[in-house]
Amino acid sequence: MKTNTNSITGCMLSLIYLLSISACDNKTPSINAVGNIIAADSVNVNTPTNNKQLVLKLYQALNDTNWALARTLIDKDFKHHFVKGTGFADVPWSGFEQGYRMSQQAFPDWKLTPIQVVAEGEYVSTLLSGQGTHLG
């Protein structure tokens, strides 16, 4: 059986995150229910540079399919917000992970590339490009 291979590239606007940083007592950075990143410690963590680095660490974990690391960056109450045909929706981290894993079955070499990362105060916004080879 022959597999048809196609390459696609597109902007992943549904994966743009607005994230904010706050300090807590735990030692693992995470992203909480409203998309807030909880920093590992309170020493100068709430800077635009640190906020960007934490968001980029999450995208690198997704690119590496390092789900164990990605889960340490995400709070148990995290919601992924996205646009679908019927309007806006959200899913918990488990739904995001399930959908992302399904996408990786169709695009096994799928990678997200940050095109622009903007941080101001507590917020980080990321414009992403996604590229992969479609098998099927």
UniProtKB/TrEMBL annotation:
One of its GO terms (biological process) is polyketide metabolic process. It holds the Pfam family SnoaL. It comes from Hymenobacter busanensis. This is Ester cyclase. Gene3D superfamilies: 3.10.450.50. The lineage of its organism: Bacteria, Pseudomonadati, Bacteroidota, Cytophagia, Cytophagales. InterPro entries: Cyclase_SnoaL-like (IPR009959), NTF2-like_dom_sf (IPR032710).
